[in-house]
Design goal:
5 helices, Beta Polymerase, domain 2, alpha+beta, five-stranded mixed sheet
């Protein structure tokens, strides 16, 4: 079973991101990748999170990435979600229950993807520890309520995330 488990912040998450980013750059065609960012809750110092490192990987072209990156990332033990309903993003998982726990997610997108906006959320939480604490409380509640339903857990966070995104956008605009 793939349970939703929230753990206390681990400062090693930053190092795990840096190491994995370097590994990705060694196996994926370097001309394909435009940038790699650490995002999601493990990228926010002090924030409790599912212990899964989320990497936002920018690529020149998703069409090209589908041709070469899938097999290249398999060498790092990533599984590609071929049936992903979002054509604007490629999604990879490292570690799949019941064989092993999830450890990393790769969200591969082109430079104009709306997913880059998630960095605004990350940056806002980094600057506002009170908001990060509220988010941690919500995540713990949802993980307890939906411990075996990752989709319901994610849906439960959506309204809160959008409200923080609105605050972050307003702050950027002023």
């Amino acid at each position: 079973m793939d349970e939703v488990v929230i753990t206390e912040y681990d400062p090693n998450w930053v190092l795990l991101f840096e190491q994995e980013s370097a590994r990705i750059r060694t196996v994926v065609d370097r001309d394909l990748i435009t940038r790699i960012e650490h995002f999601g809750s493990t990228a926010v110092p002090g924030l409790a999170a599912k212990p899964i490192i989320d990497l936002l990987v920018g690529v020149r072209s998703l069409a090209e990435a589908k041709q070469v990156a899938v097999s290249q990332l398999e060498h790092l033990s990533y599984a590609y979600w071929f049936d992903n309903p979002d054509p604007q993003r490629m999604f990879f998982v490292k570690g799949l229950p019941p064989n092993s726990p999830r450890t990393h997610h790769i969200h591969m997108v082109e430079p104009d993807s709306v997913l880059w906006e998630r960095l605004i959320f990350r940056d806002y939480l980094c600057k506002h520890s009170d908001e990060a604490a509220r988010y941690a409380q919500l995540k713990r509640h949802l993980a307890q309520r939906f411990s075996s339903d990752r989709e319901a857990y994610t849906v439960g966070k959506a309204e809160y995330i959008e409200s923080v995104m609105q605050k972050a956008r307003q702050q950027l605009a002023s």
